[in-house]
Specification:
Layout: H1 5-14, H2 16-24, H3 26-33, H4 46-54, H5 59-78, H6 80-88, H7 98-111, H8 113-124, E1 133-135, E2 138-140, H9 144-147, H10 150-171, H11 178-203, H12 211-232, H13 236-251, H14 255-258, H15 262-289, H16 296-323, H17 326-342, H18 347-350, H19 352-366, H20 369-381, H21 386-394, H22 397-437
Antiparallel strand pairs: 1-2
Helix pairs in contact: 2-5, 2-22, 3-5, 3-21, 4-5, 4-10, 6-7, 7-16, 7-20, 8-16, 11-12, 15-19, 15-20, 15-22, 16-17, 16-19, 16-20, 17-19, 17-20, 17-22, 20-21
């Protein structure tokens, strides 16, 4: 059984339920993260595999497995690596580079399409056939040899996801608790003292023993004494780390306190308005390209390049936020996206080259949303309740997803591409204004 081109169109819009599921599970996943090890929460590829069966029998079940189930799974797994990295960061990695650490982690999430766009196109349309069904200004594939491969594609993708998640989850662990380090310290001291005693006995053993061995033992004894002296007199760095930890705990805001701040609502609405543009562009950039580009393989290459920009852009925006400020980075990111969407239609007059440049700029600009908002949350509200606080900010997409589905399925057909570009640019302009009013409290800049 194959799905018609129009069912495929509806499926694209109905997969907004994917994002709804992602965000509905946001707060529960953060609570689970505080209870269970992170690797336990990463095994969520079942929705893609189940779609192999549902897509052959029921459109509604397909929406449930590929939308709700997969979306909830992604929601549970999305922020876990980021939260785990934030736990390692203060004690082990780049303590002053929140943006860079967040960017490095979420870059993989954004860059995955670089591989899987090519995998899907090579599997479904190896002969580079042109979309043959025209509906208004949109084009769709209706060839049987392409649609018949759709169920098997979910097995292929599900198998890839399962393998990658297995490897990743085995490597994903929380940092050791500081209390564990304190408990192990007496045992370490005992071992050092025993080693010192053995070295001392050997050092003053009869002169007939090898002189070189005695010198080595003397060096070991001196090293022990030096280390013991260092531990009795903590270094300046250790004292600074202790002060930083005390400041972090002191200035961290609980979720109930966060809800009383203006900054939370600015971040929440930033996510809401930015989400409209992100979902519109990421869902329909290829559909718009098909209106004047007849090469499906070329569009797949553009999709891969956009994934590179999406992943690399997250690292770039993290570095910018660390070097300047989150506020400046947010304004710059939203401003570039606003201008690019507003002028996106000119690509149809030039062709492939300008279209490629614009798509890359769009993905590069909106990628900042996924690293700047988590970083702003950590800097503004502190580290102690970061998982729950960011989970609350993330819930904005529960509204973004259904609204975006309405825009893409209903308004686009009546407004046309040009007016839709103006509408999305308007949302981004609101985000620029919100970014202007966002400020990180001085007390949390110490975090």
């Amino acid at each position: 059984m194959t799905m018609s081109a129009y069912q495929i169109e509806n499926l694209i819009h109905k997969t907004s339920l994917d994002t709804v599921g992602l965000n509905v599970s946001c707060l529960p996943k953060m609570v689970l993260l505080m209870i269970l090890p992170p690797r336990v929460l990463m095994q969520w590829h079942i929705g893609v595999l189940l779609t192999y069966f549902t897509v052959q029998h029921s459109f509604v079940l397909t929406v449930i497995t590929y939308g709700a189930v997969f979306g909830i799974g992604v929601g549970i797994a999305y922020a876990i690596p980021m939260a785990c990295a934030m736990k390692w960061r203060p004690r082990y990695w780049l303590p002053e580079r929140k943006g860079l650490v967040n960017g490095l982690v979420v870059a993989g999430f954004g860059g995955g399409a670089f591989i899987f766009d090519q995998v899907q196109t090579a599997f479904l349309n190896p002969d580079n056939k042109e979309a043959d069904v025209v509906s208004g200004s949109d084009k769709y594939f209706d060839q049987a040899d392409i649609l018949d491969k759709v169920p098997q594609s979910f097995l292929l993708l599900g198998g890839c996801y399962a393998s990658m998640q297995l490897i990743g989850s085995l490597l994903l662990v929380n940092p050791p608790d500081q209390s564990d380090d304190e408990e192990r310290k007496p045992l370490i001291e005992k071992d050092k003292k025993e080693e010192y005693t053995a070295n001392d006995e050997k050092l003053f053993s009869p002169i007939s023993q090898n002189t070189t061995d005695n010198m080595e033992h003397l060096g070991a004894t001196s090293e022990y004494l030096l280390n013991a002296s260092t531990e009795e007199n903590p270094s300046q760095n250790e004292l600074q780390n202790k002060d930083t930890k005390e400041q972090t705990e002191k200035w961290s805001l609980s979720p109930t306190q966060v809800l009383k701040t203006k900054s939370f609502y600015i971040l929440w609405f930033l996510y809401l308005f930015n989400g409209q543009g992100i979902q519109f562009v990421s869902t329909l950039y290829k559909a718009y390209g098909q209106t004047f580009i007849k090469d499906d393989h070329f569009l797949a290459i553009v999709g891969s390049l956009s994934a590179v920009c999406n992943g690399g852009g997250r690292i770039m925006w993290g570095i910018i936020a660390d070097k300047f400020s989150v506020r400046s980075a947010l304004m710059f990111s939203c401003g570039i996206f606003c201008i690019s969407v507003l002028t996106f239609e000119v690509t149809s007059l030039v062709g492939k080259s300008l279209y490629t440049i614009y798509v890359c700029i769009l993905f590069l600009s909106f990628s900042g949303n996924f690293v700047l908002l988590p970083t702003a949350t950590a800097r503004t509200f502190g580290q102690t309740y970061y998982e729950l606080n960011y989970g609350m900010v993330f819930t904005a997409s529960i509204i973004t997803s259904p609204v975006s589905a309405i825009l893409t399925s209903n308004l686009k057909s009546s407004l046309g591409w040009d007016n839709m570009f103006f509408l999305i640019a308007g949302f981004s302009f609101i985000s620029v204004c919100l970014s202007w009013f966002f400020k990180v409290e001085k007390r949390s800049e110490k975090l």
